[in-house]
Amino acid sequence: MDRWMDKEGYDNDDGEWGMRMDGDEDEDEDTIRMRKQELRRYMMSLRDSLSREEMIRASSIIQEKVLNTDEFNSSSIVGLYSPIGSEVDTSTLARYAIENGKVLAYPRIEDRYTMVFTMVLDPAIDLTIGRYGILEPLPSKVVKPDLVIVPGLVWDEDGYRIGYGKGYYDRYLSMNRDAVRIGLAYDFQVLSSIPHSRMDVRVNMIVTERRSIRVV
Length: 216
Description:
Number of strands: 13
Largest sheet: 8 strands, mixed
Oligomer: single chain
Mean pLDDT: 88
Radius of gyration: 17 Å
CATH architecture: 3-Layer(aba) Sandwich
CATH superfamily: NagB/RpiA/CoA transferase-like
Strand content: 15-25%
Strand order of the largest sheet: 6-3-2-1-7-10-12-13
Number of domains: 1
Order of helices and strands: HHHHEHEEHEEEEEEHEEEE
Low-confidence stretches: 1-24
CATH topology: Rossmann fold
């Protein structure tokens, strides 16, 4: 079994982290926030230990699985993210979307609280470094994707995610609930349960190199 599929000291099924990090609806927001931050640090370190070859291979498998979903093939406007660091790549999805006449869109940070998706014709040309050092579109036509591919640091089998703590995706998705939401992750990023609050928005599906989890 590959190193990135089964990290030492990490149990993906009811192990120490899964049990310690189970969400509790009775917990206060401060406790949930602290537990999320602990998981962020842990999972970022774990994810960043992947080699380039491991990331490329896993990303290829994940993207191929997404391409075979009804959700992707029936979509008209696909919202992708620009991967940063060791995130799952999305370039194959972008290329396929363009080749098959879909409208391609990427998130753009408008201000401290607002994220929109704007149309992109060619990611190699139309993306530039924006806020937080992430590639984002130049100002262009704002669109509403019917499929949003969602990044994240930690996931659980109920479709909850922990991102980087800014809340942009949760705010966007809460106001655009008609969009299908697919999260991309390496399998070790998916726990049985994670702390979550009423503001967190679940995805409809999580796709990893090992499995596709349909949740809502």
